[in-house]
Structures are given as C-alpha cells and as structure tokens.
Amino acid sequence: MPTHTAIAAIAPGQFDAIQVETEEPGAGQILVKVAYASMIAFDTYITDVGYFVADYPVILGFNASGTVAAVGAGVTSLAVGDRIAGFAIYGQGRKDGPKGTMQEFVVLPAFQCAKVSSNIALDAAATIPDNFITSFYTLFDQLGLPIPSSFPAPSPPPNHDTAILIYGAGSTTGQYALQLLRAAGYTSVAATASPKHHAFLRALGAAHVFDYASPTLAEDVARAIGGDGKFALVLDAISAEGTLARVAQVVRARGSVALLLPIKAGDTVAVGEAGMYQSVPETRNPFAAETKILYVRTFTYAEVCCISSGLILFYFIMMFV
C-alpha cells in the first residue's frame, strides 16, 4: 500500500513527521488530497499533556481543505476534483475514526465535508470548519435558538431582543457567533474582549462590548443593557475557571450558559498545571442552582444533532459568499 507523510504527536510534548499508509475511502467516505490543515487549541492539549489520546502516534489537525481524490460507495454529494473543507471530529488517537488532517491525504466521512466556492482560497477555508461548526451548534442546538430559513434571516425571530452574551468574543468561535446572531436577526447581543478589539466586534454585530478584565463588569453590564441587568443566554468561548466566575455575575439565575469543553483550570484557554475538567467541579461552581449549564462537545455533536458538518458549512457559504 502506498504511504504519505503526516505530522504527529509521538509522545507528550513531542511531535515529528511520520509515514502512514494512504487508505482507500470506504462507504460514505472521501479521500482528500490535503492542501492546507489548521491546528486548534485541542491540538495543544494533545501535544502538551496527551489529552484524549488512546495510543501514540496521533496525527494532529482537525480542519483541512483540499480536493477530493477519490469517493467511496454511496457518496453523491461530492465528486473527484471538488474543492472541499472538512472537519475530523472523530478519531484523534482512537482506532474507530479518521486520523488528524495534518497529512498529505486523509479519509473523512462525506457528511463532515462541504464544497468550497471558487472565491474562497483554500488556505482560508482550512480555518473555517471547527470554529464555525462550534458556534453554529452551540447557538442553534445547545442554546436552542431557532435556525432561520435562510441567512440573513428574512425577518427577526420572535425572541430577537433576548439578552445574549458572547464571552471571549475576540476568539474565532466568538467572532463567528456574533456574525451568526446578527445574520439570524438578534438585536441585543453583547460581547466581552480586550478593549483593542471592541470596535471590530461592534462591526461584527455586538450591540454592547465590555472589557472582560473590568473590576466593575457586573455594574458595567447592568448600566448598558437595562432590564434586570443580566443575560438570559451566555456562550463562554474560553471556559476557564476565571471566566466562569465572571459569567456567573452577569447571567440570570434561571439563564443558560454554554461552556466549550474542556474547562480549564486558571483563567485562559491554555492548559494549566492544575489540568482540565469535563464539568464544573461541585465545590467550585459559581452559578446559581437554577442556572442551566450546557457542556458543549463539538467533536460528538453529530451524535445528538441532526445537522451535518457539510450542511452547517453550507450555511457559512450562504452567509459570507
């Protein structure tokens, strides 16, 4: 069997180029000739601490763009030669799914891929899948907002003035969330970020922008949004112990908070020495008992969400092309 080069974690804190077999696509799969692959924060958890790894080596990368080199049985949505972007949500050190995308060829399920229009460069396309899918899934599945019939929405939704906060909106996931909410017709969306990002986030659709480091964050929010001064829905794009504490100050007691897993010890997306969690530790839970905490696991979204990666990425094309 022919082989090709891949970039893999070979042990915690170590990675290297390795040779792997070039597989044939099975039923419902495509073989992608990778042009570009991008790494995400989760890749650093794998390389730094061996998080989510069953066996080494682990090929890195969750996003890819390139062209379809071969299609498996039953694939009708894509054809050889199509330019695509794809998302490897399974595998990563497991034997039951596709490997990472940082290799010359990768086999992916067709439903995790979408065609890329000719006016989107493949290097840009490789940055889209993970962050856009995470934002879309969190807003329109986990937080329960209705999906518009098209983007931009033909009319505002009935709950268009719901107070929504995107915490960590300067992140790529946060930026996509703001754009999705604006395109869906929501008018009372706020964001937190460093002050240098405030003007840009307003341009993306934020009605209010706050400095996450402000010692008077709760008071700043109350003055700006009126009403009870708190948010009904929050997406925490950082999900660290420090951010949870600040979100707890500004979310309604009966509100909903979506946390992008894993939850990091400390106050940043980086892995601290104290590690990471899959749920809020009971002894460190800053939220009211009535607050609904939603744990977002993007890599397993296809098990609970009827929308495929390819369809979600099609929504991206509808919005931005």
Automatic annotation (TrEMBL):
Residues 13-313 form the Enoyl reductase (ER) domain. The chain crosses the membrane at residues 299-320. InterPro entries: ADH-like_C, ADH-like_N, ER, GroES-like_sf, NAD(P)-bd_dom_sf, Trans-enoyl_RdTase-like. This is Chaperonin 10-like protein. SUPFAM superfamilies: GroES-like, NAD(P)-binding Rossmann-fold domains. One of its GO terms (molecular function) is oxidoreductase activity, acting on NAD(P)H. Keywords: Membrane, Transmembrane, Transmembrane helix. The keyword Transmembrane applies. The keyword Nucleotidyltransferase does not apply.
